[in-house]
Design a protein that fits this description.
5-stranded mixed beta barrel; 35% helix; S-adenosyl-L-methionine; 3 domains; iron-sulfur; transferase; binds iron/sulfur cluster; Elp3/MiaA/NifB-like_rSAM; 15 helices; OB fold (Dihydrolipoamide Acetyltransferase, E2P); binds 5'-deoxyadenosine; 19 strands; 457 residues; alpha/beta
Length: 457
């Protein structure tokens, strides 16, 4: 939109890729644009489209360019104003304008509070770019959360990373670790609860490194948020093994609202690879943490992230990864092929692994992880638990919710979104389980665990 007579946009659409923090940032950008008088619209009709991008792996980063091309060729009217936000914006900056001149605005994750101003600049003609990492936090100037919320809301409490794992772009795109101020977080949690949120997931690249100037840690924050009327459930993600404090582990025993779920990436089961990754923990120290968490909360569901094909990864290193997966027994996990990222130390390491071998390893790892997830789901059959209804299912009356262990639960004839419903889990599939409201169970008169076994197959 380099035409100086471009009208200011009246409608907007934000499309977020990648992690949950991008979802949060995308919501905040939407709220800000809404506060400026713009209204939300579909991607194929909005006057302004914000692509909130992810740079973590090459595939995610390249996706933005095909999206830009599609938007620029919009068939049903004039092309929209295009803004590239998020981590690709931060990593590539002005290079984006060179590669895709159709892009009007480039705005990094620490500067998106200035989006309305950038939109005005782009409307006046020309490109607008802001990839500053300002000392003044964007959180100080973002508007208060919009009132209406879904049942489950994200809340960023910590951002950035100082760990510098050798494969990872996050320390460069999100910057140094910062913790948001206590009052700001608690106020936002209250606003989310007022808006209808029943569950809050506290977000950070190293969320368990959150602390304030009084030395309070994440567990104290969780304890306080748990007291906010309306908040029934708290989760946090993503954690680094080295920041799992005693207090946070104890919180899994002491705070009822803290859900029995821990996403704790290990990345590899080989100490040599962990060293080359600069993870600064060992397989033994990781397993020790898992043991300690399970000692205080035996039913906790453990989740993780894995990278296969890191430079130099031998067959024995990969076998060690399979072994740690067997040792931990994950309820769910994410696994990725190593993707060399420009500017990271690992991209220049010798012994990059051939793509075919990476594919093989990823398949083997995912087969094991899928089997574990299915077994975890099967083991929950027969449990009575409370689920949070999040949305409608495919069939009339069907509802989808989440168990405390973050399983997707399907219920026929469930109550409206936001309800906490006691159910019995009666059958399990690889990616979901089926729940029956406990009230229906009683009504149908009696039940025997063996019935579930039969149904679960
Ligand atoms: N290649 C592949 N996976 C990566 N991750 C981070 N950087 C890379 C990379 N260069 C994975 C890690 C991390 C998750 C968010 O993404 O497993 O925990
Ligand atoms: Fe990336 Fe490592 Fe920081 Fe996680 S801890 S964001 S993997 S550098």
């Amino acid at each position: 939109m380099t035409d100086p007579k471009t009208p200011a946009p009246k409608t907007f659409h934000v499309k977020s890729f990648g992690c949950q923090m991008n979802v949060y940032d995308g919501e905040r950008m939407g709220e800000m644009l809404g506060a400026q008088g713009l209204t939300a619209a579909d991607a194929d009709s909005a006057d302004l489209v914000v692509l909130n991008t992810c740079h973590i792996r090459e595939k995610a980063a390249e996706k933005v360019y095909s999206d830009i091309g599609r938007l620029a060729r919009r068939e049903n009217g004039p092309r929209p104003m295009i803004a590239v936000a998020g981590c690709v914006a931060q990593a590539e900056g002005a290079e984006i304008h060179r590669r895709a001149p159709q892009v009007d605005i480039v705005v990094g994750p620490q500067a998106y509070h200035r989006l309305p101003d950038l939109v005005s600049r782009a409307s006046a003609g020309g490109h607008a770019l802001d990839t500053d990492m300002p000392a003044a936090s964007k959180f100080d100037v973002l508007p208060r959360r919009a009132r209406r919320q879904g049942p489950s809301a994200f809340l960023t409490v910590q951002e950035g990373c100082d760990k510098f794992c050798t494969y990872c772009v996050v320390p460069y795109t999100r910057g140094a670790e910062i913790s948001r101020a206590w009052d700001q977080i608690v106020d936002e949690a209250k606003a989310l609860a007022d808006g209808g949120a029943r569950e809050i997931t506290l977000l950070g690249q190293n969320v368990n490194a959150w602390s304030d100037e009084r030395g309070r840690g994440l567990h104290t924050l969780i304890e306080t948020i748990a007291l906010i009327p309306g908040i029934a459930r708290i989760r946090y993600t993503t954690s680094h093994p080295n920041d799992m404090s005693d207090g946070l582990i104890a919180a899994h025993r002491d705070i009822d609202a803290l859900m029995p779920f821990l996403h704790l990436p290990v990345q590899s089961g080989s100490d040599a690879i962990l060293k080359a990754m600069n993870r600064s923990h060992s397989t033994a120290s990781y397993l020790k943490i898992i043991d300690r968490v399970r000692a205080v909360r035996p039913d906790i569901a453990i989740s993780g992230d894995f990278i296969v094909g890191f430079p130099g990864e031998s067959d024995a290193d990969f076998e060690a990864t399979l072994q740690i997966v067997r040792d931990v027994d994950y309820a769910m996990a994410y696994s990725f092929k190593y993707s060399p990222r420009p500017g990271t130390p690992a991209a220049d390491m010798d012994d990059q692994i051939a793509p075919g071998l990476m594919d093989e390893r990823l398949q083997a790892l995912q087969a094991l992880l899928n089997e574990q997830q299915h077994r975890f789901n099967l083991a929950s059959v027969g449990r009575t638990t409370e689920i949070l209804i999040e949305r409608d299912g495919k069939r009339p009356g069907q509802k989808l919710g989440k168990s405390p262990w973050l399983q997707s639960v399907i219920v026929e004839n469930g109550p409206e979104a936001g309800s906490l419903l006691p159910v019995e889990i009666v059958s399990a599939a690889p990616n979901s389980v089926v729940g029956v409201p406990v009230s229906d169970r009683h009504a149908s008169g009696g039940w025997h665990p063996a019935q579930n076994m039969a149904r679960a197959g």
